Amino acid sequence: RRVLLLGEGNFSFAASLCGTAGTHVVATCYESEEEVSGRGRAAESIRRLRERGAEVLFSVDCTKLKDYFLPEKREFDCIYFNFPHCGRKAGVAKNRELLAHFFRSSAEVLTEEGEVHVALCNGQGGTPADQPRREWHNSWQIVAVAAGAGFILSNVHPFKAETIHGYKCTGYRSQDKSFCVEGALNHIFTRSTLLPYFKPVSCEVELESRKVSFQVPQVLVDKINRGFLELNSNHPVRTVKEKLTAELSRAFPLQNIDYCLSLLHQGHPNGVCHSNIFWIILSPEETPSTEEMSNGPANAVLFSHVDSCRDTDKNGRVNIQERCHISKRYCLRPSLLPYAQAIIQRGAFLPGTLHVLSGPVFRKCLIAPYSMPVFHEMVFVCAVNRGTEDSCIQMLVSNIKTSIHSLHQTVSSFKLSINLREATSFETTELNDFATFESQLSKIQYFICMNIDTSGSCEKGSCVGIIRTAHYELVSSELVVVFASLNLDLLAMLICGISDWRMLWTSDTRFLRQFPRGELRLFKSFSLYPPSYVHDVSFWVPDGEPFDEVAFHTVARQVSGEMVISVQLIDSFQQSETGRKSLCYRLTFQSCDKALSSQEVAEMQLLLRKEINQRLRVTLR
């Protein structure tokens, strides 16, 4: 294991580390050997290092590391830089600049799985781990600076100088004097996966006994066909699904019918607002472009994706016939409920048997902590004799509770409460995005609420499922159908302590490594205190047209690759003379798993302005 130490003052830290078995130490300092040797105990530490086979280098500039090592010796497993400083009375701006150049230089000599350790005095880092915490502008902003070189903060812990044998700090204002390291922190950085750049993707499905392909909406390119629920998956969403299925199979005869579900839904799903739907349009009269043909089979029928308000009239209706001269329209399925209803209406079911459907569903939605444009839904359908539906509901909920409690107990000791609440007891403001959308589809009798705390109250975001009943004359006047729907993604988040839904979809392998063989554990984030950036955008909306806020949020999701975590309307103005209306939105950018720099966010903001001007026909201010 090759370890590189930078900016050593008297080499006492390097000497303490050199005794570790299996470690080859390369210790360096910025000054010449002659300058360093005069410092207290430096000569002795250097002698000990050399005796133990360590390399000792002098006059090494931490911002140009690759210049000091041959290509075959440039890969280090760990780089230490304790208490970096420009020297003398350099201010925070100069030291930020030093760190920025250091991180870029480190990226050139670090292994892919390597770590960069940076120790800073109390308050300098500017993270919540500092106590007390300095104001952001007065700190070194180490996490944001590191992001510029592709690093994320993966751990932070106290730098305990007293536990390091023989260590003595030195270098106060470039002198052979010690400085206060009480409350100092060691920041451990790792490489981030690269920000996504998504090319157009076509998806092939079977529709009406023929294979067809369609262009996937850009905002969903990294989420389509991820296979979280497949047999070989270790994803926590699949673990939750399998546990629920196993528990319910003890109480009900159970039949899985996932295999027959198409990603595409024909026509307009009842009760769903147009602005919430990802429309896929079949256009057999149009000739596909060369690029489209290269993305799909030659004999496939091609679809296009409609995602801008130019495809709607003033009432929000999609103007399909005028635009594409087509005979049919499809959308990515926003719910599995229509499939469950179709099974019942066809009579393709056994009364008393619990039919289970599961898979991803797709919905345009506003950007909010619990708003997911795609998640895995699990639907249970059971037809029972009239008058027994309440006992069926109680049995269903009881088994769901047992299953979730069992999963949670293996993960955390926090108190878990699961409640069945009547829909009439909810205020609209209490509903999260999942519950609000489900309310559009048909009348809901109960919400299944879950929260992990000691209060037992139902907080916004904790609605993980719904229950509804329906009467179908096509089946039997003596039968009542009970439907239950669960958001598996939200369940997995609450059970495993995952605070950001985007983490479920990360491509970083460090996520799934925390769930070996699908075993659920309390999730530990590998990207701590990610920096956030705020940008405003203001524009005039088209005259006489309602502004589609969902479309605006969808564009923000797309251009940023889901890096926008908040969109707030901060000002609205209407000219009295002309009646023109202006809106001003504040967008907050932050990544949960990747390094995100201010420059990258600035580019996203410019792209956002361009896209909303073209697709939403707004006039930028």
TrEMBL record:
<dbReference type="GO" id="GO:0070475">
    <property type="term" value="P:rRNA base methylation"/>
</dbReference>
<dbReference type="InterPro" id="IPR036690">
    <property type="entry name" value="Fdx_antiC-bd_sf"/>
</dbReference>
<dbReference type="GO" id="GO:0005759">
    <property type="term" value="C:mitochondrial matrix"/>
</dbReference>
<dbReference type="InterPro" id="IPR019446">
    <property type="entry name" value="BMT5-like"/>
</dbReference>
<dbReference type="GO" id="GO:0004826">
    <property type="term" value="F:phenylalanine-tRNA ligase activity"/>
</dbReference>
<dbReference type="GO" id="GO:0006412">
    <property type="term" value="P:translation"/>
</dbReference>
<keyword id="KW-0809">Transit peptide</keyword>
<keyword id="KW-0436">Ligase</keyword>
<protein>
    <recommendedName>
        <fullName>phenylalanine--tRNA ligase</fullName>
        <ecNumber>6.1.1.20</ecNumber>
    </recommendedName>
</protein>
<feature type="domain" description="FDX-ACB">
    <location>
        <begin position="528"/>
        <end position="621"/>
    </location>
</feature>
<comment type="similarity">
    <text>Belongs to the class-II aminoacyl-tRNA synthetase family.</text>
</comment>
<keyword id="KW-0496">Mitochondrion</keyword>
<dbReference type="GO" id="GO:0005524">
    <property type="term" value="F:ATP binding"/>
</dbReference>
<keyword id="KW-0648">Protein biosynthesis</keyword>
<dbReference type="Pfam" id="PF03147">
    <property type="entry name" value="FDX-ACB"/>
</dbReference>
<dbReference type="Pfam" id="PF10354">
    <property type="entry name" value="BMT5-like"/>
</dbReference>
<dbReference type="GO" id="GO:0070042">
    <property type="term" value="F:rRNA (uridine-N3-)-methyltransferase activity"/>
</dbReference>
<dbReference type="InterPro" id="IPR045864">
    <property type="entry name" value="aa-tRNA-synth_II/BPL/LPL"/>
</dbReference>
<keyword id="KW-0030">Aminoacyl-tRNA synthetase</keyword>
<keyword id="KW-0067">ATP-binding</keyword>
<dbReference type="InterPro" id="IPR005121">
    <property type="entry name" value="Fdx_antiC-bd"/>
</dbReference>
<keyword id="KW-0547">Nucleotide-binding</keyword>
